[in-house]
Specification:
The structure holds two protein chains of two kinds.
Chain A: H1 2-16, H2 20-23, E1 28-35, E2 47-54, E3 59-63, H3 70-77, E4 85-90, E5 93-94, H4 100-105, E6 107-111, H5 122-126, H6 128-132, H7 137-150, H8 155-158, H9 168-180, E7 186-190, H10 198-215, E8 218-223, H11 226-232, E9 235-240, E10 244-249, H12 251-256, H13 261-267, H14 271-277, E11 291-293, H15 298-305, E12 312-316, E13 322-327, E14 348-349, H16 355-364, E15 370-373, E16 379-383, H17 385-393, H18 402-405, H19 415-427
Parallel strand pairs in A: 3-8, 3-9, 6-7, 7-8, 11-12, 14-15
Antiparallel strand pairs in A: 1-2, 1-4, 4-5, 9-10, 12-13, 15-16
Helix pairs in contact in A: 7-9
Chain B: H1 9-14, H2 16-50, H3 52-67, H4 70-81, H5 85-109, H6 113-121, H7 126-159, H8 168-178, H9 181-209
The chains are: A alpha/beta, B mainly alpha.
The complex binds adenosine-5'-triphosphate (ATP) and magnesium ion (MG).
Chain lengths: ~450, ~220
Amino acid sequence: MAENTLRGRALSATDAGTSPRARRAATVALEHVSKRFGDRADGQLAVDDLDLFVPAGATCVLVGPSGCGKTTTLRMVNRLIEPSGGRILIDGAPIAGRDPTELRRGIGYVIQQVGLFPHQTIAENVEVVPRLLGWPAARRRERVEELLRLVGLDPARHLRRYPAELSGGERQRVGVARALAADPPLLLMDEPFGAVDPIVRARLQEELLRLQRELGKTILFVTHDIDEAIRMGDLVAVMRQGGTLAQFAPPAELLARPASDFVARFVGTDRALKRLTLRRVGELTPASVPLAVAGEPVGAGRARAGSGAPGRLLLVDREGHAVGWLDARGLPDDRPADVAAAQPPTPLLQPETTLRDALSLLLDAAGSPGIVVDGAGRPMGLVTVEAITAALQDVDGDAGPDTRQAPPGGPSDPSARRDAPGAMDGDRGRPAAGTPLPGG
Amino acid sequence: MPAEPLIRWSWVADHPAEIGAALGQHVLLTVLAVLGGLAISLPLAVAAHRYRRAEAPITWVAGVIYTIPSLALFVLLIPVTGLSVLTSEIGLVGYTLLILVRNTLAGLDGVPSDVLEAADAMGLTRLQRLVRVEVPIAVPVIVAGIRIATVTTVGLVTVTALIGQGGLGQLMLTGFINLFPTEIYVGALLSVALAVVADAGLLLLQRALTPWARVRGAGA
Ligand SMILES: Nc1ncnc2c1ncn2[C@@H]1O[C@H](COP(=O)(O)OP(=O)(O)OP(=O)(O)O)[C@@H](O)[C@H]1O
Ligand SMILES: [Mg+2]
């Protein structure tokens, strides 16, 4: 029953979008899936009675300690491994009856070691599946260039090079391009960024999120890094030794309400901080900020700020950019607000700054409120440490209104969290309500 | 009476056709042997790669053939196939098998497992994987085997002079019989040169076939 409602939601989302991407995502269901490797004397299951449902367009992250069956689970979905029990359905149809090679050509696959063909150029590597599918050369070529640009590689520079000539990060990008080549509705990714350094990993994660916003694929993503799981997943399946499912929930719910001690330990004692990574400054309602235009009389700023003469005024220039904090106490109303006498306007926060980063910046600034500025550097309001801690309390705001209604172990609307920063982008450049603007 | 020089150049100048024919036959016998060896070894190696149980018997047989002294093998074959090109080729091909099977197998086994996993996951059939991925990646190792087999065969061909073939070996043999050093040295030097040229030529061929194998960039 739970599944029906979820599928209903996924389908209506699909119908609503007329863009081709909406039709290019698949649902994945695992029903009582088990795997026992024949040569294991102790008879231990690698995967034990696993039930998962991933709605179309969602990124589901499988996370858990080493050996808990993540890779095995993933490889059962494209039949590199056959389940010992249960069944797997893609778009509602069991995959057991399908020809494995035909099935695999419709599923993108990305692994940590990438597995590029060393004897083929980047172009040839990317067009492997289109070639198998018999696309004409012109279409393949066009697609290869499109894909390389999509993953941030310059076709002119990389088309004719060999994998050995690329850096690890570049190779991983080619791996992603290759997996996307035939526009599969489902991507399987097994620790795709496990072999690159943390800086490149963060960038690749960011780019995959961006790509995913554009493409809306269904992704099954394996990692043993809980931070990566929280960052990448609309849904997180925490697995434990023996291949059992410990919890299946959106990241915010996982952090706010771990289902067991195991999950709580696995997500870590800093889970409150981790929850802050899921939310962004733009989601808070910033407090209004007393503004004064540099050069204008201090009194004009005081008047704009209204009741109770504020101690500090935020100075802005004629274009509205924040230029400094002015301590206005004791200054007569007719004194011009002088930039030279002001402190630097810090800390500055962007709407897309995560609350965790914001908190860190505020703590660094000894608790001084952060100035939220729009893309052009114009102040939108103030955010305090208290506002951030208050945001932690409204748990259910974390992942949108759906979270609370989600059945135990069931997913909620995958798009809720990811779309939040996007929606906020639309507000950029508009000051928060209640913020007095200089010069009206 | 002046001492006989090692090489009497006037004889060389007078007998270009004879020397050329011997060289031509030497090349032909070598090429036939290596091609024949490849035609047998490649399928055997692929079979041993795919069905691991076949590996031991296949390499065992190739190893046994390799250990038979060459002259003995040719002599043993004479009652069956006579003093013919076939006799020498059976022997010559036989000696290439061990090297070619072993190298081809090593080349196929050396294909990285992540590459195979990716090939399977993208939906290549077993045959497509073999032809488009495994064999091309094994080419440098296979060609290395071909080079050893070729150089070995160039040497062995001279032995077949004793059963009426031999290419440059014929020159050497008649030189020994007539106590004429020029023929011996011309035969010997040309066979060494042939081995060196064939080896270098194959190396160049391998480089042309596998431009990817030489690039060493940022990655492994
Ligand atoms: N081909 C196989 N034959 C036998 N046992 C296997 C095989 N593949 C995996 N296993 C076992 O199944 C269990 C799950 O392995 P799996 O590779 O799925 O773990 P994982 O969660 O991906 O771990 P990691 O994070 O280390 O990659 C392990 O105990 C492993 O030893
Ligand atoms: Mg794994």
